[in-house]
Amino acid sequence: MSGAREVVLDRIRSALGPGAAVPDVSRAYRGAGAPGGGFAAPAAKQPAPPPVPYSVGDDVLHPSFGEGVVTGVEPGAVVVVRFAGDGAERKLMADYAPLKKVA
Known about the structure:
Elements: H1 3-16, H2 26-29, E1 59-62, E2 66-74, E3 78-83, E4 89-93, E5 100-101
Antiparallel strand pairs: 1-2, 1-5, 2-3, 3-4
């Protein structure tokens, strides 16, 4: 065992009292089986999602719902559109919705 680890285990043994069993913490220290021991590396940062091509106030056209106006843009590339035909406000995924900007 390494020196620092042995010191910590000795402190645990003395705190628990004589004859107390000390649990094996070697797998926890090694990151539950990480090769080479040590703690697991932190997760890499995720790249920022691409910007949504719509902004509040844009006039858009949907093949089924007709003309509408973007009333909001939410995280996850969700576009909120109020359609003129029925006055309904719908949340659409910008990457999949067949929306076109109207000039």
